[in-house]
Amino acid sequence: MHHQPSRLIVRDALVVTLDAKDSVYDPGDVLIEDGVIVAVGTVEDEAAEGCDRVIDGAGRLLVPGLVNAHTHSPNNMVQGTADGLSHPAYMWITQAYTANRTPREHYVSAMLGCIQMLLTGTTAALDHFPGQTFTAEDVDAVISAYRDAGMRAALGLRFYDSGFDDIAPRGATLSKDVAADLERLNPLKPMPLADYGALAADAISRWHGAEGRLKVFPAPSNPERCTDEALVLCAELADGHDLGMHTHLLESRVQAEIAQEKYGCTMVRHMADLGVLNRRWSFAHTVWVDDDDIELLARSGAVVVHNPESNMKIGAGTAPVPAMKARGVRLALGTDGAGTNDNLIMHEALRLAAMLHRPQAASRADWLMARDVLAMATAGGAAALLADDDIGAIEAGRRADLVLYRLDAPWWVPVNDVMNQLVFAENGSSVDTVMVDGRVLVEGGRITAFDADAILAEARPMMEANLERNAELLGLARHMADLFS
Ligand SMILES: [Zn+2]
User: Fold this and answer.
1) Which residue(s) pair with 197 in the sheet?
2) Distance between Cα 371 and ligand 1 center (Å)
3) What is the pLDDT of residues 260-318, one digit of tens each?
4) Which of 129, 142, 149, 274 is least surrounded by Cβ atoms within 10 Å, i.e. has the fewest?
5) Are residue 60 and residue 84 in the same domain, yes or no?
6) Angle (CA) 65 66 68, round 5°
7) How remote is the CA of residue 376 from the centroid of ligand 1, in Å?
């Protein structure tokens, strides 16, 4: 049994609430009861009586936990495996590193991500899982990791019931041998929609709402890799169970071309015409969109999840984030998987999101400022998780997903502008204490909620075993990757 204090107070911290008024308390107290923030500001001694625990916040900064709104837990073991790869080349190579995993490997890989995120100030994640087809046991394994780690998470059950046209070598004919290998080894065979519907319904019934912080979302790999029936099924599941939906959208240029060929219009327009474009969606990337798409996205209330590091690393393009912001598209922030990044440190994504768009901007008025990207990583991520009222700010009534940073790191001395330094100076290494739902998971910069060292030890030899299992597939993947410049 985890010991969960029912009453907890953080005293005398520099509290940056990120609430609607941008309230800052210096010093400030935050009182938490049964995982919910009940008072912020100055809490009198009488009100704080009976606390199971008092956390001294002096010399520390308290902010809402960051939300990583797009990541892939199977990739948490593949960092460093891909440089110089375009999107399709990367997609082939990464199959050899992530396919044919056991449920235990899925669990350990997800736990690795939890360790990394918690230690660097991220308290919630949207995990687009997995890359290939999956079983109920795989779902149980990965969501158990978030349960055991104590993180807040939405598991997007990733699938495709149509082809991966965007990574098919267009115009090239495959030799007979390669075509035969592809038929035999390709881990990207579509999942029949009926099978997905049954798996998703089962996962939702068993896990959605578990622990009060775990969610299950339908999650096409990419809408183009799905039939219209599949998109409609996702929308129906989401409406019926009050779920979010998640997908990659228009990450690469060829995906925009395929949409025109397939639908005679853009992917966003097609989803709108199909009646499935709504505020339940969060869309990772959303790079290759036009003005009309941006208008549709803004009106729909859908959330766009910007992944600046991933987009740069595989040369996918630059998402028109300032234009989307100007039009009122809701925005969140993600790291993407560790194959295209190669870590899950949201502080890097924050800083890059703020800086990436500046050289192309016509005016300084279009720049994303520190407060803008912090909003993406907190309230925006909350919107992607359909948890708008629950997390994203330090405010009475919200869940206590909070992070304390030590202010003795040299880049915090002196504190000139707390938000600017949080975005442009901090790198995640000053994280001292992390709680989710008022439960302390990290203390003194160490994971205290579970045995992180045991997970690291178990993870170390796993990739070697994985690659041994997928040796043939790696050969094929390298051949396929070579077909793309
Ligand atoms: Zn992704």
Assistant:
1) none
2) 25
3) 999 999 999 999 999 999 999 999 999 999 999 999 999 999 999 999 999 999 999 99
4) 274
5) no
6) 140
7) 17
Question: Residue 265 domain-assigned?
Answer: yes
Ligand 1: centre distance to CA 388 (Å): 22
> What's the sign of the alpha-carbon dihedral 188, 194, 199, 203?
positive
pTM, 2 dp: 0.97
* Encoded tokens for 387: 């948890």
Q: Write the pLDDT tens digit of every residue in 404-442.
A: 999 999 999 999 999 999 999 999 999 999 999 999 999
Assess contact for 64 and 401: CB atoms under 8 A: yes
CA of 310 to the centre of ligand 1 (A): 8
Angle between helices 228-241 and 193-207 (to 10 degrees): 20
Mean model confidence pLDDT for the chain: 96
Q: Mind listing the pLDDT tens digit for each residue in 83-105? A: 999 999 999 999 999 999 999 99
- Count of the separate structural domains present in the chain: 2
Q: How far apart are alpha carbons 387 and 406 in whole angstroms? A: 28
Contact present, 245 and 222 (Cβ < 8 Å): no
Domain with 233 in it: what CATH number?
3.20.20.140
Shared domain check, 71 and 59: no
- Same-domain check for residues 252 and 234: yes
Find the angle CA(159)-CA(188)-CA(192) to the nearest 5 degrees. Answer: 50
- Tell whether 352 and 321 lie within a shared domain: yes
The reply to whether 427 falls in a domain is: yes
User: Does residue 1 lie in a domain region?
Assistant: no
- Domain with 406, as residue range(s), is 7-64+393-447
**How many A from CA of 70 to the centre of ligand 1?**
6
